[in-house]
Specification:
The protein is an alpha/beta fold and 144 residues long. It has seven helices and six strands, in the order ββααβααβααβαβ.
Length: 144
């Protein structure tokens, strides 16, 4: 389920795309900002890997990578563990067998959110909407 209205919660996991908008302070970030204020904010270990892949791939210098590290330090990082690994397998199997595969890191992000029973703030609701039990927040989106 994707919400177009603010949900009351005390914690949220932010996916890679939403974090990137917040970090770069894009116009899109304006829609995400109300959902990350005054709540505990989390990033999956998979998001950290994706962010640094992008930074190295784009040839970022030390200053820009340091700014990324500083921004990441404002979040609680969810490490992988055995239960998240099991959920990864379950989510990936379910999505692929139902004909809704998506990018590998996103399975880890979804599994992290499910394990911690935490809503996921995303701009990529088309990927995540098929994950059973996952609470999605995707401002301005409609799945209908």
């Amino acid at each position: 389920m994707v919400s177009n209205t603010k949900i009351i919660f005390d914690k949220i996991i932010i996916d890679t795309d939403a974090f990137s908008h917040l970090f770069k302070r894009t116009e899109e970030a304006y829609r995400f900002r109300p959902y990350v204020e005054r709540v505990k904010t989390f990033l999956s270990f998979a998001t950290i890997g994706e962010l640094y892949f992008g930074a190295f791939n784009a040839g970022w210098g030390d200053n820009r990578k340091a700014a990324l590290a500083k921004e990441i330090s404002d979040y609680i990082i969810i490490p992988s563990n055995y239960k998240i690994s099991i959920l990864y397998g379950k989510v990936r199997s379910q999505c692929e067998s139902e004909g809704h595969p998506f990018d590998n890191p996103d399975y880890w992000i979804a599994a992290s959110a499910l394990h911690h029973d935490c809503p996921l703030l995303t701009n990529n609701w088309k990927h995540f909407r098929y994950v059973k039990g996952l609470k999605l927040i995707s401002p301005g989106r409609n799945v209908n």
